[in-house]
């Protein structure tokens, strides 16, 4: 699993989880959905995401590292 694939999976999980929490628990959870969306939007322009930095420090390989093997 690469950083890019893991990041997309995490984003999808957090969006779905916050939608479920917003529906069944409290509508305030929709703010978390908005935060995830805003983070994905800014990362499209800056090519930087805090989660990617953390995943790389944990040793998850990039696509470029996997292609070289």
Structure commentary:
By secondary structure, this protein is mostly helical. The protein has one domain. It is 75% helix and 0% strand. It is built from four helices and no strands. It has helices at residues 3-24, 30-46, 50-57, 63-67. Helix 1 (3-24) packs antiparallel against helix 2. The radius of gyration is 14 Å and the shape is elongated. The two termini are 14 Å apart. The mean pLDDT is 91.
What descriptors fit this protein?
69 residues, 75% helix, 0% strand
Layout of helices and strands:
Layout: H1 3-24, H2 30-46, H3 50-57, H4 63-67
| Helix and strand sequence | HHHH
By helix and strand content, what is the structural category? mainly alpha
Task: Indicate the overall shape.
Answer: elongated
> Portion of residues in helices?
over 70%
**Whole-number tally of structural domains:** 1
Gist?
With 69 residues, the chain is mostly helical.
């Amino acid at each position: 699993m690469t950083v890019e694939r893991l990041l997309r999976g995490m984003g999808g999980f957090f969006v779905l989880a916050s939608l479920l929490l917003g529906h069944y628990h409290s509508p305030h959870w929709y703010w978390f959905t908005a935060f995830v969306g805003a983070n994905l939007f800014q990362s499209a322009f800056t090519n930087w995401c805090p989660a990617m930095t953390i995943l790389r420090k944990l040793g998850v390989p990039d696509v470029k590292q996997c292609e070289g093997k």
